[in-house]
Amino acid sequence: MSADWREALFTNMLRLVELFRLDKFLFRIFNLVSTYSFTDYFRGFERNNVIRRLFGDRTEEILHGLKVHFSWVGGYMGVNPSNGHLMVNPNYLRNGDKVDIYLDVVHELVHVRQWMEGKSLFEGGYRYVERPTEIEAYGYAVEEARRLGLSDKRICQYLKTEWMGDDDLLQLATSLGVEGPSTN
Question: Per the domain annotation, does 184 fall within a domain?
Fold first, then answer.
């Protein structure tokens, strides 16, 4: 099964932005971004055991230095592949499910660490649900979801995206040790 066209389009657009370092240029032209410190908006993550495992003794330093770009471009949140900063749609913060937002922050902080290690966040040759960086990031989010007491059904609701078909969701859930939705 090939990747959904929306996923492929989005991934290729991000690769081009990364390749040509267009993010600053585009955001300045369209004035689409406001930038703040991560710790100004996301408090308490420096005390989170999962996040401390990600960044170790440098957790507070890294989170304090991490920038958040609030942008109306994009639907949820992600990591800017050219500078490792968090990109967040303020509408998602205002209207999204609070548990999903929390798990997305955990997921994206894994990507921040991966970026710091020099890993490509949009490595080609993989479908979204097979990409090693995504499996690792979702793994941390699922671990945190289980700590919060979420059921496998609720975790699958979190994992499901609009660019992911039912087969993709089942594959991702299975690879993460989550009981996937039944296919009736």
Answer: no
